[in-house]
Write a structure and sequence with these properties.
This protein is α/β, with parallel strands linked by helices. Among the domains are: 164 residues, 3-Layer(aba) Sandwich (Rossmann fold); 102 residues, 2-Layer Sandwich (GMP Synthetase, Chain A, domain 3). The chain is 32% helix and 23% strand. It has a 9-stranded mixed β-sheet, with helices on both faces. Helix 2 crosses helix 4, helix 5 crosses helix 6 and helix 11 runs parallel beside helix 12. The protein is globular.
Length: 568
């Protein structure tokens, strides 16, 4: 398998490493993989639940029958536009009910969504289109002042396989999303549960995000396991706060898991407490999922709110580690059970259980979904470590992928020969098998749950004519956990930090713009002559967060947690 350019009609299965036959047989025999597909799942729920409400989005209320019907009609419009089974479609939509309809329409056709985030910009969207040979891009007209049609024009000019841009709202010269609401097809393609269902994006440590291939069998098992652990059923009312294209609000249990359980999704247009608390009161929300910075904002706001939050039974927190101090505040302030969630789009998901002792809930990040989730904590030489000692987390199991899409070199580094995924997390196991997350061992920054690959930001900065060299590292932050700092060696007169920030902002998602820019004459080096990012991290920590603080050089104003791009 070699990395190369993909055509729009090419079968991608050979570029997506699969589970060995012995593991597939094992997982099917255990009842994890049951031959379910997403399209059939929704059809069965619609037939069984009918007018039971599935989605609430503002004034729009869709029953399961409505969602099923709308998915069929959109699938028909996409098919008549020329979207066929196996073809890729980049989906970049905000939190709207149309996002969920689009997912199931593509599932029905067997077309493969690539789930981009609203925060992504030309560099990322263009890469997804070209790398996967995408035939179509589905986006919105304008959200929060940003014109996605202008972004689409830039991408369309460079994406060799892209034929269609579909726009929700005012489409201008593009295909109108509304125009694809058409009479359902007489027949739909046959979908096998072993086939690819969609692509998610890795957090990544190098370059742009890698594509994560997900199949119906493995992902639906993760939904079923999550639903069982989270005790979801038809009475569950789940508040969709974080961008729904993220793995956490998609599957843990997320909107897909709650729909699997027959519950209701309430979509929040913004994550701020004033918006979400009103929805909790009005819709009697029972469950919500947040990242730590948003959880802190909610906890502060809940102490003075006049809204009735008594329906809220479970608050999930994931995406980054929640401090034990903050975790202890959830039950007294919100009156609900905290559920910590630690996982990755590549597979493994851990939950604290709802009936765990309070000490386990506030101090650990939980246990895996599956009895067949194999977890190893190893030292630098891959020797297994006993409980109580921190080490590198390796895992394999019935919903953890065996390799990234079309990424032979990355797969050789990120997966062991016997199929364990090197997560890049440093964890410690307790005697009872709970995980405690200690940090990361990869060159990645976790900014309030958004994963930033240092190399991607470095490459963007290096394109500036005044930048000779750059190293991007994490710096501690009480609020977001980590923020980013770019150490820059200038070529000639150093540019203004805000100039560099704007330069990056025009190319990458806004959460990737360095929070701080420091100019430096030379980088510290390791014994073998490499840039010592360890020393740089210590420099920024000791200078601005240690005893001797000085005036900082900031690249931009810090994003607030009310901004979904910054806090999700």
């Amino acid at each position: 398998m070699t990395d190369h350019t993909i055509t729009a009609t090419e079968d991608l299965s050979r570029y997506c490493p699969d589970w060995p036959a012995a593991f597939e047989q094992r997982y099917r025999a255990a009842g994890y993989w049951r031959g379910e597909t997403f399209g059939a799942m929704l059809r069965e729920r619609a037939e069984r639940l009918g007018e039971h409400i599935a989605i609430v989005d503002g004034d729009t209320r869709l029953s399961y029958a409505d969602l099923d019907h709308r998915a069929d009609r959109l699938a028909a419009g996409l098919h008549r536009l020329g979207i066929s089974k196996g073809e890729r479609v980049v989906v970049q939509l905000p939190n709207r009910h149309e996002f969920i309809v689009t997912c199931f329409a593509l599932f029905r056709l067997g077309a493969l969504p690539i789930f981009a985030l609203p925060a992504h910009r030309q560099f990322e969207i263009g890469h997804f289109c070209n790398f996967a040979g995408a035939k179509a891009l589905i986006t919105a007209d304008r959200v929060d002042g940003f014109d996605y049609r202008a972004l689409a024009r830039s991408v369309l000019a460079e994406a060799t396989t892209l034929e269609h841009v579909i726009v929700l709202g005012d489409a201008e010269e593009f295909v109108s999303f509304a125009s694809l609401d058409q009479e359902p097809l007489d027949t739909l393609p046959e979908i096998n549960s072993r086939e690819l269902a969609f692509f998610q994006l890795s957090g990544g440590t190098t370059g742009v995000p890698k594509l994560i291939p997900r199949r119906h069998d493995d992902y639906i098992y993760s939904l079923r396991g999550s639903v069982e652990i989270c005790r979801n059923d038809t009475d569950t009312v789940y508040l969709g706060v974080l961008p729904l294209a993220h793995n956490f609000p998609m599957s843990s249990p997320g909107f897909l898991g709650v729909l699997y359980a027959g519950g209701r999704i309430v979509i929040a247009p913004r994550p701020s407490p004033d918006v979400c608390f009103e929805l909790i009161e009005r819709e009697h929300v029972t469950m919500a999922a947040l990242v730590p910075p948003l959880a802190l904002v909610w906890l502060d706001a809940a102490q003075t709110t006049t809204r009735d939050l008594s329906s809220l039974e479970v608050l999930q927190v994931g995406g980054a580690k929640l401090s034990a101090e903050a975790a202890r505040r959830v039950r007294p302030i919100l009156g609900c059970t905290l559920q910590q969630v630690f996982g990755m789009a590549e597979g493994l998901v851990n939950y604290t259980r709802l009936d765990d002792p309070e000490d386990v809930i506030v101090r650990t990040q939980g246990r895996p979904i599956s009895p067949d989730d194999e977890v190893r904590v190893v030292d630098d030489d891959d020797n297994d470590l006993p409980p109580g000692q921190p080490g590198h987390l390796l895992t394999r199991g019935p919903y953890t992928i065996r390799g990234y899409f079309n990424a032979t070199e990355h797969n050789a580094k990120n997966f062991t020969e016997d199929g364990f995924y090197r997560t890049g997390d440093v964890v410690m196991l307790t005697e009872n098998g709970d995980l405690i997350v200690e940090g990361r061992d990869k060159d990645q920054i976790n900014r309030g749950g958004e994963k930033i690959a240092a190399e991607e930001v470095e490459n963007a900065l290096l394109a500036h004519e005044s930048v000779h060299d750059v190293a991007v590292v994490a710096m501690p932050d009480k609020y977001l956990g980590e923020r980013s700092c770019a150490f820059v060696i200038a070529r000639g007169t150093p540019p203004k930090p805000h100039e560099l920030a704007q330069f990056v902002r025009a190319r990458l998602a806004s959460y990737k713009v360095p929070d701080r820019i420091e100019f430096i004459d030379a980088f510290p080096q390791t014994g073998v002559g490499k840039v010592s990012k360890k020393v740089l991290r210590e420099v920024i920590r000791d200078t601005y967060f240690g005893a001797g603080k000085k005036q900082s050089t900031t690249a931009k104003e810090t994003d607030t947690p009310s901004n979904p791009e910054a806090a999700s």
